[in-house]
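README: folding subset

This subset contains proteins for which both the sequence and a predicted structure token string are available. Records are stored as plain text. Below is the entry for histidine kinase (477 residues), shown exactly as it appears on disk.
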Amino acid sequence: MRLNSLSARLLLAFLLPTLGFFGLIGTVGYALARSILEDELGQSLSAIAAATASQVSGERMLTIEPGDDVQGTRTWRNLTRLLEEVRQASGMRRVYVVDVQGRVRADVGGSLPVGAEVPELARDRRELSLVFAGERAASQVLFTGSDGRLYKTGYAPVRQEGAVVGAVAVEGSAVFFGPLARLSRTFTVASVLALAVLAAVAVLTARGLARPLRRLMDSALRIGRGDLTTPVPPEPTQEIGVLARELEEMRGALESRDRQLKLMLAGVAHEVRNPLGGIELFSGLLAEDLKEGSTTEAASHVGRIQREVGYLQRIVEDFLAFAREQPLHRAPVEAPALLSSACELLAVEAEAKGIQVQVEAAPALLEADGSLLTAALVNLVKNAVQASPSGQPVRVVGRVEAGRYAIQVKDSGPGVPEPERERIFEPFFTTREKGTGLGLPLARKIVRAHGGELAFTSTPGDTTFTLTLPLQQGSPS
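--- output ---
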């Protein structure tokens, strides 16, 4: 598992804090419990030693000399009996009495003879100094006995007429370390199990997150490689589902744009090929006429070449207008003036066909790019003029509807055939011989850039294109 993968990072995020928490709690808890239990044991041992010391006569203790244990003197036997009773009653491992020089006067549970020095006392010099000063104390260090168990020693002073003449030492087993060690092992096992469960949860969570993310990554890579046809699968998780939907919308937009671009390129190639062929033909005829000296035919061919060149120029201009992302230069525009100016640009063409363009515009103020909207309206009115039969009017009506300004361009032409209605806004789709097929797509692009929409309804004798635009903010609706 790579460290930069989501699974590894989630696993570390789950386990490291938990491991630190359990480790800290376990260590601190164990140390605190051991310290408390050691203190309690030390206090108990020193209390037993103090109770024993209160029964020991310092004067008689000092009369015990080396060899008394061999001879079994009465004083030594009495002291030994007392210490044995204490050891049996308290369950201690060893109880012994020493003088201020650290020499044994009686040892029950041990094997040191009277007069011998106790090696363990060297370990507890600090505690013994307190005892010989009149206080009771317990050893700070646990030691291991011959049986492998841990032990601790409690001390209490033996007095004679108020002066400290010796000390009673009581060795007790730290029996609490058995349960404490078992508790520590149990805690360790529980911690390991908890970590294993968290690791399993982390892995499952990481897989649950990584799989949909990997699918999204694969979809993004496919799109990056140019595969725009394979859809992005939906995801059930809310957050990842939003990403999948957005990526699918992006893929659909790219696919639509790619398809549109291919159509545009094919349309440009098709539309340019025809006039180029005409120019080639007429230029050849022109060259022959010039050789023969026929100026009339030559002039006719020149006119045709000029018309084809003009058509090529219009194709290029329409293509650039449609393909270029033109920034909007918004400014307040009076709706009646916008409609009138667009219709005036087509007055000559309409009169040539014997068609009257009628304008009815309710007053309203638009926040728009006047020149671009004029171009869009010119395309709509021009199509209506070309579609209308001679003598029939074209009506351009503008009015406020539901807080927006609606512009309707109506003609009484044959209408749009049913099979062509779905393709009417496709670039380069046209039914006219010299049409570029970019007028309606360009008009809708301009309208949508203004936050509006362009739609149409068509029946034989009645076709209406409706252009809706938002009103200027603050203007009456």
